[in-house]
Amino acid sequence: MDSLPTPLPPQQPSPTPGGGPALRLRTLWIAWFLAMLFHTDLGLMPLFHGLSPEIESHVDPAQLPAVFGAMLGYFLVPLAALVLIAYADTSASGGRRWRWFHLGLGLLYSVTNIAHMVVDILIPDSRPDQVLLMGVMVLLGLLINLESWRWCRAPRVVR
């Protein structure tokens, strides 16, 4: 007579289907980057039609290197976050500290995106397409915050 199959011993919880919050965070950050690049590209589109993309600037030309450096940092910090999410999600510790730091980073970027959108709305010669795109970036930022919160609350998965 055939013996009954032996049940498997209990195992550690497996990762959530679809990769869980960390995968969704990486996807949202990539979408945010694409929207940010498109925001910049869209701002320069008048150049391709013989028009100036310039809006009235009150920045002293001597301060432009600092402005460009700040923008470089604004792009590079989320890029680093995108990479660190992958490492934290696959680390033995589960990246608990990084998860909470990332939530704070997402909140900071949401505040800056909301401020930028408000400024875009208040500029007299602002373009509706740029305001709409900033709205998309704010929405992506809020989704990043939601997924970051879920990631902070998720149990550590042993791999």
Q: How much beta, percentage-wise?
A: under 5%
If you average the pLDDT, what whole number results? 86
Poorly predicted parts: none
Number of strands: 0
Describe the structure in brief.
This protein is mostly helical and 159 residues long. 65% of the residues lie in helices and 0% in strands. The protein contains four helices and no strands.
Question: What would you say this structure looks like, in words?
Answer:
Helix 1 packs antiparallel against helix 4 (128-153) and helix 2 runs antiparallel to helix 3 (96-122). This protein has one domain (20-43, 63-153). The protein has 159 residues and is mainly alpha-helical. It starts with 19 loop residues before the first helix and ends in a 6-residue tail after the last helix. It has 4 helices and no strands.
Please give a handful of descriptors for the protein shown.
mainly alpha; 0% strand; 159 residues; 4 helices; single chain
Q: How are the SSEs placed, and which strands pair?
A:
Blueprint: H1 20-44, H2 64-89, H3 96-122, H4 128-153
Helix pairs in contact: 1-2, 1-4, 2-3, 3-4
